[in-house]
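Q: I'm writing up a methods section and want to include an example of the input and output format. Could you take the sequence below and give the corresponding predicted structure tokens, formatted cleanly so I can copy it straight into the document?
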Amino acid sequence: MFRPENLLREARRQKGLPRQNVPPICVLDPDGDIVRHLCKTGGAKPVPHWACYHSTLFSFEREGITFGIVGCGVGASYAVLIAEQLFVSGCRFLVSMTSSGQIQGKGPTPYFVLIDKALRDEGTSYHYLPPSDYSEADAELIETIDESVSRLDLAVHRGSTWTTDAPFRETGSAIERHRQEGILAVEMEAAALYAFARVRGKPVVCFAHVTNQMARDSGDFEKGDNDGTTDALKVILAAARGWRRRTETA
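A: Here is the clean output for your methods example:
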């Protein structure tokens, strides 16, 4: 009964905003590091017609592609709220780039995981899909993006993650159990975003930027150059190129 397009209609009315589309390719940046870096370097500017009550949308360009980006949309319910509103506002492809804790090691951190499925240990996905263990990405889309990011000189692994609502309740037994299941990392958004994508029929791809081992040792959470944004933007751009090639040949 409560539709995102109706909410935005009323928000535009209250704020006196015109109805204009957001960029067709948008990014969720739960940590906000990418947005902060882009704003600091002058690479991002606010999108004035974005009517969402709860977030600020910025735009930036990379190699001729204009992106929209929302920072600090951490957690499954907030991420999906933003995703719903982006797609009814002109978004055609959504990339989530979230920082993540290592479950099964794939080498020294930081590195990236292209998430092909996420364990549903949160609440939001269950409002979109019936109960199941995992929320799965669109297989053909993942193949396309995997091929595109594999050309990068970066460590990008494909695999599953564990989506949780409560990061400070990750117990040793749960971590070990998920490690035995082959899960690579833990994050807070992917299961819900993939459930939303499947029900709405929208292209969404989620990356985990594995930066830590839950701060169990000193010196954890180091992301790399410019708080990891240099490499993260390379991955995002590669994903955008892959999606564009796929749509042009469809």
